[in-house]
Design brief:
The chain is mostly helical. Helix content is about 60%, strand content about 5%. Among the domains are: about 200 residues, Rossmann fold; about 60 residues; about 190 residues, Serine Threonine Protein Phosphatase 5, Tetratricopeptide repeat, CATH 1.25.40.10; about 150 residues, Alpha Horseshoe (Serine Threonine Protein Phosphatase 5, Tetratricopeptide repeat), CATH 1.25.40.10; about 55 residues, Arc Repressor Mutant, subunit A (Orthogonal Bundle), CATH 1.10.10. The chain contains 47 helices and five strands. The chain has a five-stranded parallel beta sheet with strand order 2-3-4-1-5, sandwiched between helices. Helix 13 packs across helix 14, helix 22 runs antiparallel to helix 23 and helix 34 runs antiparallel to helix 35. The termini are far apart.
């Protein structure tokens, strides 16, 4: 299927055989499934468009779907304008009889591409920059759907005029294009300043990129063109004339064609007698010839040419309205201009951007500005999309009319809806120029800047806060300010501003605010708590304010978000698990994630600390489903990482590993991966228990988040994972230092929950292993006191475990028995298995071999079922050494699966297809196929139907026993 419509500039391809052959080779590679990118560059008139025309229509793309588009200087600023130029011919925005988009190309996640494809945003779509990723995701799957029909070629001419968001999508696509039968060809002018230089540079930096630069025509090429314009009977050309024409035109085909055309119209001959004429005519040949022509034309024809230059490709009615010429005369004028090669032969547009520039240069600057303003009003009155009208207004010297600013704001809202913040930013800066003291313009501009330039957004919001007088307006600005600060680690500034605004708001609202004001207050409170809990530098201030807050009812989204954060602070305080659980459950009163996933994730974290594993997992499952359905990749990664932490606490090590590794693979494709640590930390934690401490440590060493030691959650999880990896590798001293660093940092932060990063219990076991149990006394008693206050079975069990491994004789055995009993009542199955193992070891030392064998057998069995094969093998070894009998613990084929393989296999076994799996995990179909190939090989199955039975085999991953399994030996 070829979507070429013969609308490109005509021309005969001369001197470009090598470049055309290179493009053919890339097309063949795409046919074979190897994605490619070609960036074709050169100065204006060098023949890029002619080469593309020959490539697309000359047989190289036969049997391939070819979508091509051209970016125009006039409409370059509209968000996803380049995308619409490419996909517009498919008619995907046309609805069926019932208003439903019926194209199979839009099935599944591809339907999320619609905001980018529509000429104007749909009214029901919310204008929010948060829609950026879903739209990119949708366009990617639309492309995948097209490649499923056959090889695909995307050709975008004049890419230097392309809007940034379209180019960002092309970059997004190419980074996920392995094994797609896809070729992307971009043509750009080298001397023009690109509309989005950063985006073009990122695309050019791709490893699959091939650059083809069109050089000036050789003398042979120039001679061929001279021979076409001045045919001679004997086909003999005057060498001096050819050389002079080549020198004057610079070998530029457009310049050369204009030069030769002018010479021919003058009656010159292609020989030595015309050498002087060549030099004379050649100076600025295109611009001078166009200006000369404009001077010779009738005024009304000249006005039509200028109107076309301003409007771009447009129908005769609008051209006539702008030029002040009747439609009938417009057609006549176009015919005249077409005959003079000013207007393209197949459309009402100028023949080349060089010609457009020359036409516009013939008008005075002031006159041109007035004409653009009239063009914008004309398009607006005609009902054109605001973004199209705004393209003209961006070129108007002064936005001095209210209607202009109104259109620019509307265009910005539409760009946000499309997920094109860069376009919205351009529109809103013009509004701000006209309204320098506008609070609303700053707020709207900051909303678009927050995702791509947070520091600038913060500066604008600070100005808006200073300008705003109404406290309610200040409150909404402060919420924006807080979230923007989170992305650049400026929590102290956010907490200060939010605190000041909240005080002023509460003073204004009084004791009985109306529902809208209560919701606004709750929103400010929740964002204050979120930002304040992010960094160690701010949590103390927020904790003091939290102590004075009354818990809201949880009837609204903002109230539930506030409750979720209050539950986190209550849990971190460690005084009342009952109160924390009550707050968390009230935050989950509505079982609909559409009002926000953050309350679900935060409250799930609290429930996990309080031993309510089931409630925690239910909330996280709901959050993950909503994130999948809405392509919200960041919250999906957050939910997966949090669920991994909870599953690990429960002793579900294989599932924890699968969630964490899935999250790590997802962020590997994202530009913000450097600011995320939780997936890697969660994966490293599970890997240590699986018996892969080297891999865990290597993963942790690659974390490069700036100021990691300043974060409340991530830093302490990181220290715990690093310490456990070091211990498992036999470096107990370094591990102990890391555990103690974690304790000191938590003390500085004011976190006293014994279940969050239980460094004290780990340090006690490590000191016992190092045969220095006497050093653990103070920290064991400290941890035990916190555990009694928090009161959950898990923390009380850990306290008894810590005291047991550091207490000699029968009292130590009794404490370990107490630990076993307490942990058996908790969801922490792996820690229960560990306690059974340590109790068995203590009983062996007390010469109670029979009792020891009972507990070692239980430890081996439970650890095996948890997936802690290293602990299971060590427990079996001691069991056999003490006279017991037990079959050899072996690794099942399921244990050979990586975390991502397990996730993919489980989804496939549940009936999901490869594409459905890829969409839900935000990866490519090829990635899913690769993982399934590994699954089939490792499980020795040949078809999907066999996966369910194979996966039901008990799991027991790992090969290396963590060093802590010998902690009981240190008590001798």
């Amino acid at each position: 299927m070829d979507r070429t419509d013969n609308s490109w500039l005509p021309g005969t391809l001369i001197g470009r055989a090598d470049e055309l052959a290179a493009l053919r080779d890339h097309a063949e590679a795409a046919r074979s499934g190897r994605a490619g990118l070609v960036i074709l560059s050169g100065p204006a008139g060098i023949g890029k468009t002619t080469l593309l025309h020959a490539f697309v229509n000359g047989g190289a793309c036969q049997g391939m779907t070819v979508l091509h588009g051209r970016c125009g200087e006039v409409v370059t600023n509209a968000g996803y304008g380049g995308v619409r130029a490419l996909f517009g011919s498919l008619g995907l925005t046309e609805s069926g009889d019932e208003g439903v988009h019926e194209s199979p190309l839009l099935k599944g996640s591809a339907g999320r591409a619609l905001p980018a494809l529509r000429p104007a945003p749909a009214e029901e779509e919310p204008g929010t920059a948060a829609t950026v990723y879903p739209v990119l995701h949708g366009l990617y799957w639309l492309t995948v759907n097209l490649t499923a029909r056959g090889p695909l070629v995307l050709v975008l001419d004049d890419a230097h005029w392309c809007d940034e968001r379209s180019l960002r999508w092309i970059d997004f696509l190419l980074r996920r294009a392995d094994d797609l039968p896809l070729l992307v060809v971009l043509a750009q002018r080298t001397e023009a300043e690109p509309a989005a230089p950063g985006a073009l540079a990122d695309i050019a930096a791709q490893s699959r990129s091939t650059a083809i630069r069109l050089e000036p025509l050789t003398d042979d090429g120039v001679g061929e063109m001279v021979g076409r314009v001045f045919p001679t009977p004997d086909h003999v050309l005057d060498t001096a004339f050819v050389e002079r024409a080549a020198a004057v035109s610079g070998g530029n085909p457009l310049m050369l064609a204009k030069l030769l055309s002018e010479l021919r119209s003058m009656g010159a001959s292609p020989d030595e007698k015309s050498l002087g004429a060549v030099a004379e005519v050649g100076q600025g040949v295109v611009a001078l010839s166009v200006r000369a022509l404009m001077g010779r034309l009738a005024p009304w024809v000249r006005d039509v040419a200028t109107a076309i230059a301003v409007l771009g490709e447009e129908d005769g009615e609008h051209v006539g309205a702008l030029a002040g010429v009747p439609v009938a005369l417009v057609e006549e004028a176009v015919a005249v201009l077409r005959g003079a090669e000013v207007v393209a032969p197949d459309r009402v547009d100028l023949a080349h951007d060089v010609v457009r520039s020359a036409v516009l240069d013939s008008s005075a600057t002031e006159e041109l500005g007035e004409l653009r303003a009239r063009a914008a009003l004309l398009l607006s009155d005609a009902g054109r999309p605001a973004e199209e009208v705004a393209g003209q207004l961006l070129l108007v010297p002064v936005v001095d009319q209210p209607w202009m600013r109104r259109v620019l704001r509307e265009a910005a809202a539409g760009a946000e809806t499309r997920g094109a913040p860069e376009a919205a930013i351009r529109y809103l800066y013009r509004v701000l120029e006209a309204e320098p003291h506008s609070v609303s313009a700053r707020a709207q501009l900051a909303r678009s800047l927050a995702e791509i330039n947070p520091p600038e957004a913060i500066a604008l919001l600070a100005e808006a806060l200073d300008l705003a007088e109404d406290v309610r307006v200040k409150a909404t600005l402060a919420v924006q300010f807080g979230f923007a600060c989170l992305t650049v680690q400026q929590a102290p500034a956010a907490v200060r501003v939010l605190g000041e605004v909240l005080d002023a708001l509460e003073a204004e609202l009084g004791s009985d605010p109306d529902p809208a004001d209560r919701e606004l207050r709750a929103l400010v409170q929740s964002v204050l708590l979120i930002t304040g809990c992010d960094e160690k530098a701010t949590i103390a201030a927020v904790r003091g304010r939290f102590a004075r807050m009354a818990a809201p009812a949880g009837d609204t989204p903002a109230q539930r978000q506030t409750l979720a954060m209050m539950s986190v602070l209550t849990a971190m305080d460690g005084r009342s698990a009952e109160r924390a659980v009550r707050q968390a459950r009230r935050a989950q009163r509505v079982s609909d994630a559409a009002t926000g996933t953050l309350p679900l994730v935060f409250s799930a974290f609290t429930l996990g600390l309080a031993d309510d594993a089931q409630g925690s997992l239910e909330a996280l499952d709901l959050s993950l489903r909503y994130s999948q359905e809405n392509a919200a990749v960041w919250t999906y990664v957050l939910g997966l990482s949090t669920r991994s932490v909870i599953l690990h606490t429960m002793g579900e090590i294989p599932d924890a590993l699968a969630d964490a590794q899935t999250a790590v693979e997802i962020i590997a494709e994202e530009r913000w991966s450097g600011n995320v640590t939780m997936p890697q930390t969660a994966l490293a934690t599970a890997l240590v228990d699986r018996g892969e401490p080297e891999r865990a440590e290597a993963l942790l060493e690659r974390i490069a988040r700036p100021n990691l030691d300043g974060f409340v959650m991530e830093y302490h999880w990181y220290l715990m994972a690093r310490a456990r990896a070091r211990w498992a590798l036999g470096d107990g001293e370094t591990a102990l230092d890391l555990f103690l660093d974690c304790g000191r940092s938590l003390e500085e932060t004011g976190i006293t929950n014994p279940a969050f990063a239980p460094w004290w219990a780990e340090a006690a076991c490590l000191l016992a292993d190092l045969k220095r149990p006497e050093e653990a006394g103070d920290l064991v008693e400290w941890g035990a006191g916190l555990a009694r206050r928090w009161g959950t079975s898990r923390t009380l069990g850990l306290a008894a475990l810590a005291r047991g491994v550091t207490t000699q004789g029968r009292p130590g055995v009794e404490l370990l028995a107490e630990s076993v009993e307490l942990l058996s009542r908790s969801p922490a199955r792996a820690e229960h298995a560990r306690a059974e193992y340590l109790l068995g070891g203590a009983l062996l030392e007390a010469d109670d071999a029979r009792g020891a064998r009972e507990h070692l057998r239980t430890a081996a069995d439970l650890a095996w079922r948890c997936g802690a094969l290293a602990l299971a093998r060590e427990a079996r070894r001691r069991l056999v050494a003490s006279g017991g009998r037990m079959r050899e613990i072996t690794t099942s084929p399921v244990d050979l699966l990586t975390g991502m393989e397990r996730t993919v296999a489980n989804l496939a076994a549940a009936g999901a297809g490869n594409r459905e799996i890829a969409e839900s995990l935000f990866v490519t179909v090829r990635t899913v196929e690769m993982h399934l190939t590994g699954v089939y090989r490792k499980l020795s199955v040949s078809q999907r139907a066999e996966l369910g039975a194979a996966l039901r085999s008990p799991t027991a991953p790992g090969t290396q026993a963590p060093a802590w399994v010998s902690a009981s030996r240190g008590r001798r």
